[in-house]
Amino acid sequence: MAEKNISLANRAYTIIKENIMNLTYPPGMTLTEAKLTKELGMSRSPVRSAIQMLQNEGLIVSDYYKSMMVKEITDEDITEIYQIRELFEGAAFELIFTSGRYEEYSYRIEEKVVRMCATAGDLYNWELADAAMHREIISIFENERINRIYENNLTELVRIGQYSIKNGMAIPKTNDNLKKMIQYMRKGNYEKAFAILKADHFGTGKSAALNGPRNI
C-alpha cells in the first residue's frame, strides 16, 4: 500500500509540475487540494505529498493564511535568469570557437534546432527543445556544477521562455535565425554567429518577457 501511495504521489508531482511548466497553472494561480484531487482523480494523500515536494522546490508557495498558489515570476526573476544565461552561454560560445570546435558544435546544435523546428507548433515542447539547445552550448565546459545550475532553473527557464514567445518573440523567425547562426559557425565566423545568439536569446527574449503581461 505504501509503495502504491509513493507511486501515486510521484505521478501527481509529475502532472502538477508539468502543468506549472506549460502554464496550464500560470504564475499566481490559486491551487487547493480539492481542485487538484478532482483534476487528477486521486485521493488527498498522494496529492498532499506532491504539493509538499513542489513547495520544497519553491514552485508552489503558501501565504500567511495558508492558501496556495503557483509561484509568481517577477522582473527580478527574469533579469537574474537571463543574466545567468548570458554569462555562461556567452563564455561557452566563445570557448567553442577558441578551442577550434565550432564545426563540431555547429552539428551538435543543429540537431537541437531540428527538434525546435519540428515542434514549432507546440509552444511548450518548443521551449523544451530550446532549453536543450542552450544546454548543448554550455556542454563545452564539461562542468557538472554549471549543468546543475541549468537543471535547477529549468522550470523557470521554460516558463519565462514561453512569456517571451507569447509577448513578441516569434518562433519561425527564431528558428530561421538559429539556422543562420549554424551556418556562420560552420564558416568559423564567431562575430556574426554570436550576434544572432545575443540578439535573439539575450536581447529580444528578455525584453519580451519583461515587457509583456504575465497573466497568460
TrEMBL record:
Keywords, alphabetical: DNA-binding, Transcription, Transcription regulation
HTH gntR-type domain boundaries: 6-73
Lineage: superkingdom: Bacteria
InterPro entries: GntR_C, TF_FadR/GntR_C, Tscrpt_reg_HTH_GntR, WH-like_DNA-bd_sf, WH_DNA-bd_sf
Protein name in UniProt: GntR family transcriptional regulator
